[in-house]
Amino acid sequence: MNNKIKKIDKFKKIATYAILIFFALINIYPIFWMVMNSFKTENQISINSFSLPESFMLSNYTKAWNAVSLGRSFMNSFIVAGISVLITVAIGSLAAYFISRFEFPGKKLIYSFFIFGLLVPIHGTLVPIFILMRNIGLVNTRVSLILPYVAFNLPLTIFILSSFMKSLPKAVEEAAIVDGAGYLRIFWSIILPMSRPALATVGILNFVYNWNEFSFALVLINDNKLMTLPLSLSLFSGQFSTDYGMQMAGLSMALVPIIAIYLLMEDQLVKGMSAGAVKG
Amino acid sequence: MEHIYKHKKKIIYLGILPAFLLYLGFVIIPIFISARYSLVEWNGFSPPSFVGLENYAEMFGNNIFWRSLKNNMVVVLASVLGQVPIGFLLALLVNQKIKGRHFFRTIIFMPVVISAVIISLVWSMVYNYNFGLLNNILSFVGLESWVQNWLSNPDIAMFSVAAVIIWQFVGLYFIIFLAALQTVPDEILEAAKIDGAQGWKRTLYITIPLVKDSILAAIVLCISGSLKTFALIYVMTNGGPSHATEVMAIHMYDNTFNGMKFGYGSAVSIFIVVFGIVLVTIVRKLFAKFEN
C-alpha cells in the first residue's frame, strides 16, 4: 500500500516536470531558434533552420540596425516612454495622495471615475485623438504620443498607488501636521519616500506598456525620424519582409532591452500587471 | 485632525486636477466624440454631414463586419478555453513544492512583457511555409501531410493567429491563478486529504470553488483583452487573406484610416466599447446565477 502511494507520487512528480518543461520549451524555443538563425545567411536558413550557426556572422545585425534605424527607434521609444512615465507618476501620485489620505466631498466618485478608465479600450478613442492632434498640429510630434500615454496610464497608476498609500499608518503625517508642515510638504518628504516600492511598480509597468505601445504610434506618427521601436519593427512585415536573416537579427536586438528589464524587475512587473488585470 | 483638513479643500482639488483633466480630455471625452462622429458621414477633411444611424445600418449590413465580429469571438473563445485552463493547470503545477519554481514562473510569464509586434514577427517566421519552425518540426516527426501555409490558408489562418494570442497571454492567467492559489490555506487541503479527497477531486471540489473569484476575473479579462486585439493581427496578416483574420479593431482601423470613412469607423469603435460592456455584464450575471 505504502509502496503504491510512493509510486503514484513519483509518477506525479515526473508528469509535473514533463508538462512544465514542455511549456517552458514552447515559450523559449521559438526565440532561441530565431536568435540562432539570425547569425546565418539566407541560404543556410532555408537549407536547415534547425542547425546551430557555423559562425557568429554579424552582417545581418549591421544590416538590420541600418535598415530600420534601430538606434534612433530605441532612442525615440526611450524618450517617449520615459517622459510619459515621469509625468504619469508625478501627477498620478499627487492625485493618489489626496484620494487615499483625505476625506472630501466627491472622493468616492472621483476614484471610481478614474478606475473606470481601466475598462476603456484604446480603439474607442483613436479617431477623436487623431483628429484632435491633427487640428492642433501635433501629429508627428512626440507630444502627440506622450499625452494619450499619460492619460491611459493614469487609472492603473492611481489604483496601485492609492491602495498602497491607504495602507500607510495615519500616525506618520499627524506628527508632521503638529509640526506645522503643509500638505505638499508631507506628500513630498513623508508619503512619497514611504511609497517607493509602489512607485517602482507603477514606474516600470507604465514604461513597459509605453515601450510596447503600437496603435497610437501607428496613427499619430509617420515620420521615420520619430518612429518608436514597435513601429520601426513593423516595417519588417512590409518592405523588408523577405530578408529573414536581417529581420531575425533586428528582432533579436529589439528583445534585449525588454528581456533585461523583465529579468531585473520581474517581481514589480508581475505584481503590477496582475493587479491591473484583475481590476480591469 | 478633521478641522485642520476642512478649510484646505481647495488644495485637495487642485492636487487632483492635473490628473483629472488629462484623463478626462484623452480617455473620457474622446469616447463621446466617437459617439458623435458615428452619426456623421465624413472623409476627415470636407465638412461632415449628419446621417443619423446610417453608419450603424451600413455596419450591420456589411458581411465583412460580421466576419470580423465572428473572428473576434474566435479570439474570445480561444482565450477563455485556451488561456484559462492552461494557465490554471500550470499554476496548480508550479504551486507545489518543486525545484525550479521561480525559473518556471519567469519563463511562463515572459511572453506577456514582449511587444505584440515582436511576437507577431517571430511567429510569422515560425509559421513560414519554407523554412518555418513549425513545418520543419512536422516534417521531422513524419507529419509531412500536416505541413502547410499556416497564415495564408483562409480556412486555418484565424486559428493560427488565435494560437499565438493564447501563447502570448497564458502567462498572465497563470500568474493570476498562482496568486489566488497561494491564498488557499494548506490546512484546508490537508483536512480534505484526511477526509479522503484525492488528486483531481480535491482540485475540483475544494480548490476551484475557493479561487472562483479569480476565475471570474480571468474570464472578464479574456473578453475585454480579446476585443482589444489589434497589433498582433495587424502585423502578422493585416486581417488577410481576404478578411479571414480581420477582427473588429482592424475593421475599424482599415475603414477609418485607409478607407477615409471616419463616421463608419467611429460606429465600429462605439460598437466595440458597447459590445465589451454587454459581454462582461452577461458573464458576471451568469456567474452570480451559478452561485445561487
Descriptive overview:
Chain A: One of its GO terms (cellular component) is plasma membrane. Chain A: This is Carbohydrate ABC transporter membrane protein 2 (CUT1 family). The complex is a heterodimer of chains A (280) and B (292). Chain A is mainly α. Chain A folds into 2 domains: 57 residues; 220 residues, MetI-like fold (Orthogonal Bundle). Chain A is 76% helix and 0% strand. In chain A, helix 1 crosses helix 13 and helix 8 runs antiparallel to helix 9. Chain A starts with a helix and ends with a helix. Helices cover 74% and strands 1% of the residues of chain B. Chain B is built from 14 helices and 2 strands, in the order ααββαααααααααααα. The model of chain B has no long low-confidence stretch (mean pLDDT 89). In chain B, helix 4 runs antiparallel to helix 11 and helix 13 runs antiparallel to helix 14. Chain B is mainly alpha-helical and 292 residues long.
The poorly predicted ranges of chain A are: none
Assembly status:
heterodimer
**H/E element sequence of chain A:** HHHHHHHHHHHHHH
Ends of chain B: how far apart? 45 Å
> What structural class should be given to the helix and strand makeup of chain A?
mainly alpha
What is the CATH domain class of the largest domain in chain A? Mainly Alpha
Biggest sheet of chain B, open or closed, and with what strands and sense? 2 strands, antiparallel
Membrane topology (chain B): Multi-pass membrane protein
Family (chain B): Belongs to the binding-protein-dependent transport system permease family.
Keywords (chain B): Cell membrane, Membrane, Transmembrane, Transmembrane helix, Transport
Subcellular location (chain B): Cell membrane
